[in-house]
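Progress against Task 2.4 (sequence-to-structure conversion) is shown through the following example record, which the project officer requested during the mid-term review.
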Amino acid sequence: MSEIAGADDLYGLPLDRFVPERTALARELRNAGRRPEATEVAALRKPSVAAWAVNQLVRTQRKGVDDLFQAGDALRTAHDQVLAGGGDPGSLRTAAARQRAAVDSLTKAARGLLTSDGHELSPTIIDRVSDTLNAAALDDDARALVRDGRLERELRHIGLGMTAGGPVSIPAPAPRGRTAAPKAEPKRDRAAEREARRRLERATRAAGAARERRDKAAQALEEAEEALAEAERQLSEAEWAVRDLGS
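Structure tokens generated for the chain above:
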């Protein structure tokens, strides 16, 4: 990351101020004869909405972020111990619950953030914030990107026995010396069961289609943000070229 004075502050601004302030800083450096630094600042990417939200959390919720990192370290340690055969599944569940609670607490804080037009962050953005926080808790490379509050794009962690819903749960062992009594098979109304299964299949297909549409929309939004950031960068460069010709 750049150590140019003022560059770090860009990531703490309201999102709609990033580009104009970046342009102003680059112009200031350029006018001061610091062209390499001006070029570096001009190349800084405007954060995605989710990355911007995470940056705000890092800058305003320092204790919560520290708790997140500590909880992630504890979960990784417990997970490694279980894999090595010397850990306690109960301790792993406790560590996983602590890590989820840390993510949930910060995600709740993110729901209080507003976009530049005064709207709450969408559920899709909140999900991306949660994924990024989870990644920062469990992955050293992700944490390095997040901890300075200068993240440009959201992150996602895959590994450590993780699924989209969090750590894979480990069932508690059955108490020794007890044998569960067989449950009586309830009488089933076959027609009702068939209808219930049909409803389940329809609902499953509908949910899958809705998730697919959501993911496509989210991808389209991200691509549009990328295109906008590149267009804004080119606009800034063009403005400098015009000023140079007029000077």
